[in-house]
């Protein structure tokens, strides 16, 4: 039994200081005189890692010993954010480390800012996966988050002359101290080739898959600590490698390129994250990435299960596998293949296990985001899976025929195969048939799923459908992001709210305490001051922390209507130009968000925001009353700066389009008030905080359906609303684009002649609502009351509540507390 030195686990300032110095020397190979800030960050990171390893390995040991049921979250994306501070908070050693670093003559904030966040996701779906991993560990639920270890994550965004420019995200170039490679757990994944059936020596009909090439999957594990518990779960991300470094057979027969491109293909598989959020590009590499990590993960689960002396009969009792949208849904066919072809289970038993094992979460209603693969491409890459999908479909449609005899319409709308055009595999249908539960991510979204996108499935299999409204982790989005507000809250109601967010309600007891309201305002102002400093340092723009910080940060997409926000800004600008002594509430409009590189309308909206900002920010007649800021490279790290500093949260999507939203929750938790439509989780936030503490506007889904049914002509609004017309005409005139009236033509035409997302229809309601916001902000005492109530009533939106619901409704798992071995 190796005696663990205190140096590795000790928490005294002295021990920590020595550990940092030791790691600088022994791991970074540096002494202070030549050490860089990054060297000190790495030395600190390894010092912290040492203090979580015991929890991690202990957790693993307990899970193995107790043969626990594991939740396996399959997600093509994880937006974990920077690890250091989150791990210090979850370990409860932030203060000790801060002192040890200070006493080492170092500045902790500088080291924190050194960390490059792993941007292994696009937006909401990826960040939700990481919030859920934090809650699973904090609730002591045994879990593994399976995904892809992209060498290059979401691009870094730079703004050049107002335009988005994508920069490769080399997040691994300086090493990653928070992961451990597990080459001993590597698995092989097949691609292409063909199948052949044979009779095994018991005369059973069997199928073997003879692949064209095989790729090796190497797992890298990252510890996911729970908050102040001994649990540390794992995020296991797969990297692809060539099986054999060089295929000499091919080389010897002169097929030099064949010998090499195997290697290249294998390495390219997990090279880069697809930067699309919603509109999909049916690229073969995307399907290869999806199949690769899903096959690695399912083989890994089966190995873990068999190692514990189980048979696969009770696999579904030991593994609850959640499909994070359709991206991993090939898993349904892959588990069938593994059970039938590799472990020789009969079809019926294999299907029973598969359906019980999987749950499917849908995150979007946008038709263009629904994954469907051309049969040709699919069959070429995954010949055995296509056979299995045909068999699944045959048996499923037999069921459909029983319920709807002779109803071919039903058959073709439910089929896993879209027979139209050059035929497609509908991945959402495979996920629905192969899962025992299907859920949306907010009440309205789950209702709309049942009424529209998955209507036929709901009518056929109503018992499968449920809802689990999204949530966010209060650890990262309050304690890590907003320590000042967290301390103020804890000073009033203690710290239990961090583990049990419903306790925030106790804050209502202090609402009549003027002193507390004053403290509340001071914290907000301090955080706004910090963001103002950041904006000045990064962009050279001076904004006043006394102005109303009106913030919209999220991916750029027409349904999120960042351009409606711009129409409000231009209208205010016009009002001041017409009446320079107009008394308006000074506002700082802050935007942030990336556009998918191929999504030109979204990129044009970024240019429009920056173009309007240039004019407004430099117009002496406007002065301090309006400022427009586009923060480049919006990611988790920047989100942690922005959410605490907002007064107003913009959640203005066209009703029925934003499945849930999670930024809306982060803003309200940090005391921002919301201006929003009756969409996604906005509805539930308004229910919880009280309609009097929420600025609602716009058409509801049913009103939109009526408007579309009667024929929506955006020009009617343009011609009948002078302020709207003036704003559009000003853009069209080239006023914001150095006279080039054509620059935003595409955007303006899409509004004037189609306006699919109903900006014109909601314009006046939005403007009127914004006026109510301005009036309300004038009464700071009342505004502060509403702000406190927003925070106090957000308990429901903790990802802990969401995870408890998944455990009860879908996974049927329960906590496994971990005792630390002394
Ligand atoms: C294939 C390209 C692609 C990539 C990502 C996606 C995601 C489903 C998009 C996404 O992130 N959806 C967001 O998921 C959040 C978490 O549930 C919700 O809060 C957002 O409303 C939803 O837009 C679709 C298509």
TrEMBL record:
CDD domains named among the record's database cross-references: GT35_Glycogen_Phosphorylase (cd04300)
Organism domain of life: Bacteria
EC number(s) stated in the UniProt entry for this protein: 2.4.1.1
Key words, A-Z: Carbohydrate metabolism, Glycogen metabolism, Glycosyltransferase, Pyridoxal phosphate, Transferase
GO cellular component: cytoplasm
Residues with PTM N6-(pyridoxal phosphate)lysine: 666
Database matches in InterPro entries: Glycg_phsphrylas, Glyco_trans_35, Pyridoxal_P_attach_site
GO annotation, biological process: glycogen catabolic process
GO MF terms held by the record: glycogen phosphorylase activity; pyridoxal phosphate binding
Cofactor(s) essential for the protein: pyridoxal 5'-phosphate
Record flagged with keyword Isomerase: no
Catalytic activity: [(1->4)-alpha-D-glucosyl](n) + phosphate = [(1->4)-alpha-D-glucosyl](n-1) + alpha-D-glucose 1-phosphate
UniProt key word DNA damage: no
Role, per record: Phosphorylase is an important allosteric enzyme in carbohydrate metabolism. Enzymes from different sources differ in their regulatory mechanisms and in their natural substrates. However, all known phosphorylases share catalytic and structural properties.
Family per similarity comment: Belongs to the glycogen phosphorylase family.
PANTHER family according to UniProt: GLYCOGEN PHOSPHORYLASE (PTHR11468), GLYCOGEN PHOSPHORYLASE, LIVER FORM (PTHR11468:SF3)
Protein name, as recorded: Alpha-1,4 glucan phosphorylase
Organism: Gloeothece verrucosa (strain PCC 7822)
């Amino acid at each position: 039994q190796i005696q663990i030195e205190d140096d590795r686990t000790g928490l005294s300032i002295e021990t920590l200081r020595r550990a940092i110095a030791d790691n600088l020397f022994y791991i970074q190979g540096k002494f202070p005189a030549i050490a860089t800030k990054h060297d000190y960050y790495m030395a600190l990171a390894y010092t912290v890692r040492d203090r979580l390893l015991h929890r991690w390995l202990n957790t693993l040991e307990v899970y193995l010993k107790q043969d626990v049921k594991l939740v396996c979250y399959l997600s093509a994306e994880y937006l974990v954010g920077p690890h250091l501070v989150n791990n210090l908070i979850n370990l409860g050693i932030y203060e000790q480390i801060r002192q040890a670093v200070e006493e080492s003559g170092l500045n902790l904030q500088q080291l924190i800012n050194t960390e490059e966040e792993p941007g292994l996701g696009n937006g909401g779906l990826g960040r939700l996966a990481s919030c859920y991993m934090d809650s699973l560990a904090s609730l002591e639920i045994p879990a593994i988050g399976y995904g892809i270890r992209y060498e290059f994550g979401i691009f870094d965004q730079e703004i050049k002359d107002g335009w988005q420019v994508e920069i490769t995200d080399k997040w691994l170039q300086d090493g990653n101290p928070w992961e451990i490679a597990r080459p001993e757990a590597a698995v092989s994944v097949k691609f292409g080739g063909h199948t052949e059936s044979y009779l095994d020596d018991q005369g059973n009909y069997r199928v073997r898959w003879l692949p064209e090439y095989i790729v090796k999957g190497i797992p890298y594990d990252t510890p996911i600590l729970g908050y102040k518990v001994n649990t540390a779960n794992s995020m296991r991300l797969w990297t692809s490698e060539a099986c054999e470094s060089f295929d000499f057979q091919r080389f010897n027969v002169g097929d030099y390129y064949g010998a090499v491109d195997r290697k290249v293909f294998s390495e390219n598989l997990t090279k880069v994250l697809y930067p699309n959020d919603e509109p999909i590009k049916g690229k073969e590499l995307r399907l290869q990435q999806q199949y690769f990590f899903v096959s690695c993960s399912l083989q890994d689960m089966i190995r873990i299960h068999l190692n514990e002396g189980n048979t696969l009969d009770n696999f579904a009792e030991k593994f609850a596998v959640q499909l994070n949208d359709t991206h991993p849904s090939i898993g349904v066919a892959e588990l069938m293949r593994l059970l039938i072809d590799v472990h020789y289970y009969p079809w019926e038993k294999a299907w029973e296990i598969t359906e019980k094992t999987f749950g499917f979460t849908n995150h979007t209603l946008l038709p263009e985001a629904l994954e469907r693969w051309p049969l040709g491409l699919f069959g070429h890459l995954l010949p055995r899976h296509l056979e299995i999908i045909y068999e699944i479909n045959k048996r499923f449609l037999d069921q459909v025929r029983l319920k709807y005899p002779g109803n071919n319409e039903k058959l073709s709308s439910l089929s896993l195969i879209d027979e139209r055009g050059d035929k497609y595999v509908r991945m959402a249908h495979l996920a629905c048939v192969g899962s025992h539960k299907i859920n949306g991510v907010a009440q309205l979204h789950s209702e709309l799923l049942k009424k529209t996108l998955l209507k036929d499935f709901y009518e056929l299999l109503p018992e499968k459908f449920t809802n689990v409204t999204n949530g966010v982790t209060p650890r990262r989005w309050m304690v890590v992001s907003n320590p000042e507000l967290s301390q103020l809250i804890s000073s009033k109601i203690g710290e239990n709210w961090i583990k049990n967010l419903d306790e925030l309600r106790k804050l209502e007891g202090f609402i009549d305490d003027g002193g507390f309201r004053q403290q509340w305002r001071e914290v907000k102002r301090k955080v706004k001051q910090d963001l103002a400093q950041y904006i000045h340092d990064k962009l050279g723009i001076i904004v006043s922390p006394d102005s109303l910080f009106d913030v919209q940060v999220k991916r750029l997409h027409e349904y999120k209507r960042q351009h409606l926000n711009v129409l409000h800004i231009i209208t205010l600008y016009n009002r001041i130009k017409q009446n320079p002594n107009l008394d308006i509430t000074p506002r700082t409009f802050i935007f942030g968000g990336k556009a998918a590189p191929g999504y030109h309308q979204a990129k044009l909206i970024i240019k429009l925001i920056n173009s309007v900002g240039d004019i407004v920010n430099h117009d002496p007649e406007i002065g301090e009353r309006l400022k427009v800021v586009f923060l480049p490279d919006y990611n988790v790290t920047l989100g942690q700066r922005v959410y605490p500093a907002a007064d107003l949260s913009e959640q203005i999507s066209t009703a029925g389009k934003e499945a849930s939203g999670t930024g809306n929750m982060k803003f309200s938790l940090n005391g921002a008030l919301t201006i929003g439509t009756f969409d996604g989780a906005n509805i539930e936030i308004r229910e919880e905080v009280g309609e009097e503490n929420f600025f609602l506007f716009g058409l509801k889904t049913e009103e939109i359906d009526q408007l579309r049914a009667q024929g929506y002509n955006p020009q009617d609004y343009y011609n009948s609303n002078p302020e709207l017309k003036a704003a559009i005409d000003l853009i069209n005139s080239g006023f914001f684009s150095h006279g080039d009236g054509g620059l935003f033509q595409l955007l303006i035409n899409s509004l004037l002649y189609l306006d699919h997302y109903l900006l014109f229809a909601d314009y006046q309601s939005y403007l009127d609502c914004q006026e109510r916001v301005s009036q309300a902000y004038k009464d700071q005492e009342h505004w502060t009351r509403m702000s406190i109530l927003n925070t106090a009533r957000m308990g429901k939106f903790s990802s802990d509540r969401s995870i408890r619901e998944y455990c009860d409704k879908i996974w049927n798992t329960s906590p496994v507390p971990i005792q630390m071995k002394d």
